[in-house]
Design goal:
Ammonium transporter fold; membrane; globular; two-stranded antiparallel ribbon; mainly alpha; disordered C terminus; 2 domains; 2 strands; ammonia transport; 66% helix; 458 residues; transport; transmembrane
């Protein structure tokens, strides 16, 4: 075991965990309409807890354990002391660290799926969806791509830190589930203002900074490759944010804060499959493309394509995660540097892990095109699996409980679902006038003031 590696791995895992709790909890609770703040935040918090119990119960072994079939491990518990203290299958780390590190990745995937379903999914249906999707979708993708015994891993797919396993999966699954759950109310679809943009930025900031652990932890060692991955991550993200911001200004005339946040997310997603295997100039080019191509699909194509208009994807996870994740996977197949791949994968074989750009430059075009083909095969596999499995899960849950909240609950929001509200404020974002009626500056709210009378003070 290596104490330095283990210390960094536990730190990186905690950084990723902070992306979810409190990062996405805050972001979801702030970016939605006030009446959905509690429900949206709690969907994320529930998923985090539920995934952990399932992960140590059977999920980790199905994703990284002994082979059962070419794309899935054998279910088993990951709580035995001897197993947890043994060396993990990668790195000089105990299994306990690896189980924890991989858990936070699994958890954030389910939380990203939730982003497409905010503002109308039945919470009881969500409680069933999380363990089912983790068991029958996430584990298959993780084993196939990340486990050394997985069929795509053996073919040499490059997914440095989850562009396929996490982002493409969550984007496609979220979009598919949103189709089956159905849309928000017409009123909410027409106007869905954030209840607190400053808090939204706080959540976004935790997401961005936490990505140092997301991509910096995947070499499973304190290495130069980890340092490169962290720097590439932030360079690509900053470039993507600025590109999105510039496009918003050019076409809409205003620098949108929410738009910049979307550009930040697409940059983080796009660089994830490539972070430690591309050079810095490639990270900048990827940032330009991640800030422009998803912007185009969201702002232009979304209004033209029938399917995209039919599905109510609350947080636009199809664009920010499915499109950006696919883009990152393809660009990885183009820009991946063979020497950096050898550092990360620790293999001397140049038949795999060579980007098309370098294959053409080095006279190994066949190997470069082969890598690109493997990257495209991975996209096809993840998309097909998640459309099919997510649809089956939603149809099965629908037999037990409704996927969508009742009309009455949709109108009321948090108070009807949880009996709790996020803010003791007037209305749902409406403005009101107030005046002072005491030396302590207590305000009178219009609904509390009877005609010709005063509010009774405690």
């Amino acid at each position: 075991m290596n104490k330095g590696d283990n210390a960094w791995q536990l730190t990186a895992a905690t950084l990723v965990g902070l992306q979810s709790v409190p990062g996405l909890v805050i972001l979801y609770g702030s970016i939605v309409k006030k009446k959905w703040a509690v429900n949206s935040a709690f969907m994320a918090l529930y998923a985090f807890a539920s995934v952990l119990v399932c992960w140590v119960g059977w999920g980790y072994q199905m994703s990284f354990g002994d082979k059962m079939i070419p794309f899935l491990g054998r279910p088993d518990v990951s709580l035995d002391q001897k197993f947890l203290l043994d060396r993990a299958f990668l790195g000089y780390l105990p299994n306990a660290t690896m189980v924890y590190f991989q858990f936070v990745f699994a958890a954030i995937t389910l939380i990203l799926v939730a982003g497409a379903l905010l503002g109308r999914m039945n919470f009881h249906a969500w409680m069933l969806f999380v363990p089912l999707w983790l068991t029958f979708s996430y584990t298959i993708t993780a084993y196939s791509i990340w486990c050394p015994s997985g069929w795509l891993a053996k073919r040499g797919i490059i997914d440095y830190s989850g562009g396929y396993v996490i982002h493409l999966s969550s984007g496609v699954a979220g979009f598919t589930a949103a189709y089956w759950v159905g849309p928000r109310t017409n009123k909410d679809r027409e106007r869905f203002p954030p209840n607190n943009i400053i808090l939204m930025l706080a959540g976004a900031g935790l997401l961005w900074m936490g990505w140092s652990g997301f991509n910096g932890g995947d070499p499973y060692t304190v290495s130069t490759d980890a340092s490169l991955a962290v720097l590439n991550t932030h360079v690509c993200t900053a470039t993507s944010l600025l590109t999105w911001l510039l496009l918003d200004i050019l076409f809409f005339g205003k620098p949108s804060v929410i738009g910049a946040t979307q550009g930040m997310i697409t940059g983080l997603v796009c660089i994830t499959p490539a972070a430690g295997v591309v050079q810095g100039w490639a990270a900048i080019l990827m940032g330009v493309m991640s800030g422009s191509i998803p912007w185009y699909t969201m702002m232009v194509l979304h209004k033209k394509l029938w399917l995209l208009k039919q599905v109510d994807d609350t947080m636009a996870v199809f664009h920010t995660h499915a499109v950006a994740g696919s883009l990152g996977g393809i660009l990885t197949g183009f820009f991946a540097h063979p020497k950096l791949n050898r550092i990360f994968y620790l293999v001397p074989d140049w038949q795999h892990y060579i980007g098309l750009a370098y294959g053409l430059q080095m006279g190994r075009a066949t190997a470069g095109f082969k890598q690109m083909g493997i990257q495209l095969l991975g996209i096809l596999f993840v998309v097909s699996l998640n459309v099919f499995v997510t649809s089956i899960i939603c149809l099965l849950i629908r037999i037990v409980v409704p996927l969508r909240l009742s009309d009455e609950e949709l109108q009321t929001g948090d108070d009807a679902i949880h009996g709790e509200e996020a803010y003791a404020l007037w209305g749902d974002g409406e403005k009101y006038e107030s005046r002072h009626n005491s030396a302590y500056g207590v305000e009178e709210f219009p609904q509390d003031v009877p005609k010709g009378g005063q509010v009774e003070m405690a």
